[in-house]
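Bench notes, afternoon.
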Amino acid sequence: MIEEKIESLGIKLPTPPTPAGSYVPVIKTGNLLFISGQIPMEDGKVIFTGKVSDENLEIAQKSARMCAINIISQIKREVGDLDKVSKIVRLSGFVNSVPDFTQQPKIINHASDLLFEIFGEKGKHSRIAVGVASLPLNSMTEIDAIVEITD
């Protein structure tokens, strides 16, 4: 059902990105998945880079959306069936911002909105959205997640 929803939105889940450092992409403990920070990677390349400002806000929103798609890809790789998601619990969103940029929530909203659109009520979550001085590989955004699943 969830994968049909994703397909109806015209989204093709990419192969989940491999870690850019010494960590694992997902840790499962009990019925929770802790998904490491996902950056906007596609085919092994960061597709949205640079500092976020008022001038490139819409591009940064696409970057956050791509992070959410990569989170979903990591969930699928870990549990196989996206219908096992019982709740998106929390997102932590980081925006590679210029110092005076204050609209980080408008950026991360695009990840939050996509998760709600795909998972419905199960996609509603708690969240932070903060600006940072830099991100790995000069990515515009990075988002991690905590997801509850059923077995």
